[in-house]
Amino acid sequence: MKLRTLAFILLGPFGHCALASNCPTGGTTIFFGNGILTTEHDARGALWELQRRVDAALDASQPQRDKSCVQYSLAYDSEFVNNGGTKAFVTNVVGQFADAAVQAGLTDYATVWSKLFQYSSVVPSLPDSWAQALGQDFSNVLITITAPVQTDLQKHINLYQTELNAGNNVIVVAHSQGNLYVNEAFVLVSIQASAQMRVVAVATPSDHVAGGGPWVTLQNDIISLVPNALPSNTTNNNHPERCTSIFNLASRTRCHDFTESYLTGDVSGPKIINAVTALPWSVSLTFEDGGKGSGVLLYDASSRTMVNWSISVSGGNTIAFPPFSYAPADSFAAIGSGNAPMPERYWSFVTGTGAFGDRELRLVFLSSLTDAGGTVGLDLSKSFLSTECFNCSPIRNIVSGSVTAIASH
User: Phi and psi for 148 in degrees, rounded to 5?
Assistant: First the structure.
């Protein structure tokens, strides 16, 4: 199996976990959770759609897989603590926004409740006056939701720990404020050496992803108004009625929807599914100056996509090469030229724009990374193949290195 346990946290009542691994070799339990302003009914609908897409991707890459190894469940919660220390429930968060509309003299409560959170594409966008008057108020509501409720945080910890103890791995996909739960729980669970826990963040208001995992945030999502939130990194080409305006509140709110904007997006949808199904590889490097490198790559072989990377280098000539960590927040991954034989063997992790003097790490694998896993060495047959440089001087060659799949299929 490419996956062992997959947990999707967007917030709500909790699903049930097995007390043993899903199959003899360890399995995948997929938990879906929703952010605030989502009913349990809608969360279950999102889980079903997510399950359908993940299963389709796994069936395509592993036609003979044991489907019993992948299970699905719901983790639902609607409670957060605002910065005043009181619980922020779905109802009172919506109420805060409705109050803002009425107090601004824009409409009455009946109009707010009938139109404010209408996500249908056939419903006209709210008037620009609403967007201009309420945009900051809505942002302020999001900003005040600062922490998960402690009792529910413990539920999350127990949920993950049960699966890890059962021999399953855990992958958490968090949407919106659900990332606050995951980030806190991640540092409180005990992860055995044979297990793994990964996080995929969707529309996160946080400034980081626990464990250095990938994130997907659409351009113009309302969540980007939250100070210090991870920046937008995705734009869809479909859904023209969503995410099209930085000023229109209705558009930005629709943009935040997990299923209708993210999961069905022609760019965001595959990014989320690839992050879920991709195989993690541990990285081990030694440079000619004695420096070392280590970390994890998350690679989807079917689409030849480097979903995520976190590689730290240190030691050796630290004057020329200070310690540094390559990650999506500070670098981009570039596949080899189409003119190269098997271009998927050639990967560069490049800071800046790749201009002269920009730091980069170049890895050339002896063979393509596939879902078969195993260990793949680096091509060290020539200088300047597998190397680190500042495009490209100074330079230091890698003298030994390999990547090893963390989870078998």
Answer: -75, 155
**Domain 279-405 bears CATH identifier 2.40.128:** yes
Residue 364 buriedness (CB in 10 A; 0-12 / 13-18 / 19+): buried
Section 226-232 average pLDDT: 85
CB-CB contact of 94 with 37 (8 Å): yes
**What's the pLDDT score for residue 171?**
85
Which pTM does this prediction carry?
Answer: 0.77
Angle of helix 178-186 versus helix 150-165 axis, rounded to 10: 60
Q: Rounded distance, CA 82 to CA 69, Å?
A: 39
Residue whose C-alpha is closest to residue 232's, from 199, 280, 267: 267
Q: What pLDDT, on the 0 to 100 scale, is given for residue 270?
A: 94
| Residue type (1 letter), 310 | S
Q: Which residue has the tokens 């003299």?
A: 105
| Residue 295 β-bridge partners | 283, 311
The owner of tokens 């199904």 is 277
Q: Are 403 and 282 in contact (CB under 8 A)?
A: yes
Question: Which residue is it, tokens 């965001």?
Answer: 268
Q: Could you tell me the residue ranges of all domains in the chain?
A: 6-80+148-276, 279-405
* Cα 220 to Cα 223: distance, rounded to the nearest angstrom: 8
- DSSP codes, 58-84: HHHH-TT--GGGEEEEEB----EEETT
- Can you tell me the distance from the alpha carbon of 112 to that of 31, in angstroms, rounded to the nearest whole number? 33
- Give tens-digit pLDDT for 261-302: 999 999 999 999 999 888 899 999 999 999 999 999 999 888
**Would the pLDDT of 21 be above 50?**
yes
Tell me: pLDDT of 51 over 80: yes
Which of 204, 270, 208, 215 is closest to 237 using CA atoms?
Answer: 270
Q: Beta partners for 362?
A: 348, 387
Compute the distance between CA of residue 113 and CA of residue 107 in angstroms, rounded to an integer.
10
Which pLDDT score is estimated for 92?
56
**Phi, psi (degrees; rounded to nearest 5) at 329:** -70, -20
State the Cα–Cα distance between residues 355 and 128, nearest whole angstrom.
42
Query: CA triplet 272, 183, 233: central angle to 5 degrees?
Result: 40
